Model the fold of this input.
Amino acid sequence: MHLFGIHDWAARLPLALAVLALLLSVYALGIRLFAMISPAEQPDRGGFYAALAMATSIGPYLYTRFYIPDILLALWMTLAVHLFLIALNRVQSVPLQPVRTSQTSQSQKSALLPCLSFAAVMAANVLTKGLIGLVFPIGLVLLYLAFTKQLRALLRLHPLPSALVFLVLAAPWHILAALRTPAIPSP
Done:
């Protein structure tokens, strides 16, 4: 509203952009999830249908009619799932013994950047909606790794640097809010 003035459309513009970002994120995630079964001549078919299903569902229209952050929550959760799958794919393709070649192949990329991005998305999720932004992504990761019997991969997903990124991004607001909120007197 500072840029465009006090108008209804200016207030709704961030949510409209978030819906667009959500549709693109669902599209990209759909491509990743359905790559193995999509026809070779249309490798993005799964992503297209996933984004189409999201675009034609009632949720984005309901959650953008009023100014509530649930579309952002859906965006952060979609990005978290995608980043987790990228990191897990990189962890699974990295050999246990270091390879002694001078060139790094696509399959040997580090999982550090997707893990740190996952932590940043979780921080944005916590700042958007609260504790649900931490519980759901971590619950998803733990349940997926438990069901697929890959809990050992958790140690290779850079938990300490990711926790540090999360705290650096999410903690300052919570600390300032706690310092500036007066204590409620007990009865």
